[in-house]
Design brief:
alpha/beta, seven-stranded mixed β-sheet, 14 helices, 26 strands, binds NADP nicotinamide-adenine-dinucleotide phosphate, binds glyceraldehyde-3-phosphate
Length: 483
Amino acid sequence: MMQEKTFGNLVNGEWRISRENPPLEVLSPVDGSLVGKLSSMSHTELDEAISAAKAAQKAWAAYPVYRKAQLMYRAADLLEQMAEEISECLVMEIAKDKNSAVSEVKRSADLLRYTADVGKSLHGEAIFGDSFPGGSRDKMSCVTRVPVGTVLAISPFNYPVNLAISKIGPALMGGNTVLLKPATQGAVSALMMVKAMQDAGLPAGVLNTATGLGSVIGDYIVTHKDIQFINFTGSTEVGQHISALTSMTPVIMELGGKDAAIVLEDADLDFAADNIVDGAFSYSGQRCTAVKRILALDTIADELVEKLKARVERLKTGDPREPGVTVTPLVSTKSADFVEGLMRGAIQQGARLVTGGQRTGNLIQPTLLDRVTTEMDVAWVEPFGPVLPIIRVASAGEAVEIANRSEYGLQSSVFTNNLNKAYSIAAQLEVGTVQINNKPERGPDNFPFLGVKSSGMGTQGVRYSIESMTRPKAVTINLTGDE
Ligand code: NAP
Ligand code: G3H
C-alpha cells in the first residue's frame, strides 16, 4: 500500500501505484508537511479498477449473506484496532481535532457492525394476486432485493473514513461491488480504512479505489458505462455537475446545507445556546449539518446573543493536536478566503460583529454576527467554516418563511418548550429532518438521513442505504394445474 508515503490504489486485490502519471502530493493544512503521495490514475488504470469491480460482482452477490456479515464484523474490529493510527492521520490530513477523529473511526466500526446486522435481516416478500380486484390466488409475486451492480462511491474531505464507509458497507451488504473515489484531501485516511476492509478478507475486486483529482478523473468515472449507481456526498455545485452529466444512472446525492436553528420565545436559552454552539463550531463548522444560521425571536434575541457569545469565547482554537481544541485551521486557503470574504461582506453591510472576526493563516476565530439581514450573502450561502449569522425575526411564521426561502433543505432545529408549536413548525419546514430541541446532526446512523431541494436526493442511513443500492426483483409464479 505504501512506499515512502506513496499510496497506491486497491485494484482487484492488489495495491497499485500509477504506471502512467506522476503522484499527487497531499499536504497538511496543519503545518504544510507531506501527509502522503497519491496515484493520479489514468483512464486505462480507471478502466482496470472498474473492470475488476464488474468481474467480481456476480460471485460477490452469490456469497452467502452471513459470510458477508462476518467480513464486516472482522473489518470493524480491525478498524477499531487502527483507531489511533487512522485518527492521527485525520488530524494531520484534514485538521480534525483528535477527539472527533477518534470518534469518526469508532462510529465507522459501529456502522459496519450495524450494517451487517441489518443486511442479515432484510428479506423479501410474497404477494398474492387476489388482493387486487380481478386478481387471483393462483398468481404470486416473489419479491426479493437484488444488487444494482457496481457502485461508484464519491466521498468528501470532512469525513474521509465515515462518509466512505457509510456507502461501502451498505453497498457491499446489498451484494454490490464498489469503486471508492475519496476526496483528494482525506484520501490517505480513507485508504487506511480500505486496508482494514481488505485485511478482513474481502475477495479481490469487491472493493476498489480510485485516487486522482475530481476535476481530472471525475467526469470519466461518473459517465463510465460499467458504473451502475453513483453514491455521492459533497458540494451542491459538484453534485449538480454530476447530475447534468449522468442521465440514466441512479444516484444518491447528499449535498450542501444552510441548516437553521429557530429559537422561540419559550425555549430554554441556556440549553439552546449550548446546542447551537456545539452544532455550529465543531470541526470548525465544516459539517454539512452544522448550524449555519440562527432565526431568533426578537423578544429573546438579546439574551440569546449574550449566552452564545459567552460560550463561543470559551471555545479553544488552534492546532488540532492540542487537547480540547474545537476550531482548527480550515482545510485550505481557498476555504479560509471564502469564509473571510463572507464575514467581511456582512460586516460592511451592517452586521454587528459580536465576537471573533480574526484570521491567522487558515485559522478563523469562531465568529458570531448579529443583526444579519436577508440582503446579506451570509444569510444564504453555506460558509463551511466557523461563522454563525443571527437573523432576528418578529414571529415563528417569519422564521419558517426565511428558513424555507433557502435553496437548501437538509435539516432545521426548533428550540421551544411547546411541543405542539414545535410539531406544527416542523410540518412546515422544507427539509429532510427537523430536530426538536437538538442541533442538526446525521446520526444515529440507523435514522434516515436526506436533504431536499439543493441539499440532495435519495436517502442514507443504514437500512435506507442498503435499500437505495438494491432494487426489487419480482418473480411471478402462475399456478396452472387443477390439483
Ligand atoms: P466537493 O468539492 O464537492 O468534493 C466532493 C467529492 O467530489 C470529492 O471526492 C471530490 O474529489 C469529488 N469531485 C470533485 N469534482 C468532481 C467531478 N467533476 N466528478 C466527480 N467527483 C468530483 O466537496 P468537499 O469540499 O469535499 O465537501 C464539502 C461539501 O460537501 C460541503 O458543501 C458540504 O455541505 C457537503 N457535504 C454534504 C454532506 C451531506 O451528507 N449532505 C456531507 C458532507 C459534506 P477531489 O477532492 O479530488 O476534488
Ligand atoms: O458533513 C456532513 C455529515 O453528514 C455530518 O455528519 O452530523 O454526524 O457531523 P454529522
